[in-house]
């Protein structure tokens, strides 16, 4: 779990299953994949800047949409 105010990178070969809200980051770079767990009702991703460079953020799908 990152500390508040940190710069965070999700490397290209990583897949992160997010099941809780991280603290507010300074900069978030996503080269890998971030998947928000399906049974979570509320996730907040907060940063001064977020760059989804070569990765993805997935929250829900067509049969089970993300309610948060």
Keywords:
single chain, 68 residues, mainly beta, three-stranded parallel beta sheet
Helix content: under 10%
What portion of the residues fall into strands of 2 or more residues?
Answer: 35-45%
Annotation, overall tally of beta strands? 6
So how many helices?
A: 0
Question: How many angstroms separate the termini?
Answer: 21 Å
Overall average pLDDT: 90
The string of secondary-structure elements, in order, is EEEEEE
Structural class: mainly beta
Main sheet specs: 3 strands, parallel
Unreliable stretches covering 5 or more consecutive residues: none
Provide the spatial order of strands within the biggest beta sheet: 1-3-5
Nearest-angstrom radius of gyration?
12 Å
Shape: globular
Structural features, described:
- The chain has strands at residues 7-10, 15-18, 25-30, 33-36, 47-52, 56-59.
- By secondary structure, it is an all-beta fold.
- The two termini are 21 Å apart.
- The model has no long low-confidence stretch (mean pLDDT 90).
Give a short synopsis of this structure.
With 68 residues, the protein is an all-beta fold. The protein is 0% helix and 41% strand.
Question: Topology, please?
Answer:
Blueprint: E1 7-10, E2 15-18, E3 25-30, E4 33-36, E5 47-52, E6 56-59
Parallel strand pairs: 1-3, 2-4, 3-5, 4-6
């Amino acid at each position: 779990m990152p500390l508040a105010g940190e710069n965070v990178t999700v490397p290209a070969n990583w897949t992160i299953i997010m099941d809780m809200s991280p603290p507010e980051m300074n900069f978030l770079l996503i080269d890998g994949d971030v998947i928000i767990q399906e049974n979570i009702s509320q996730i907040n991703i907060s940063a001064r800047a977020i760059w989804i460079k070569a990765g993805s953020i997935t929250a829900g799908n067509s049969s089970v949409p993300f309610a948060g």
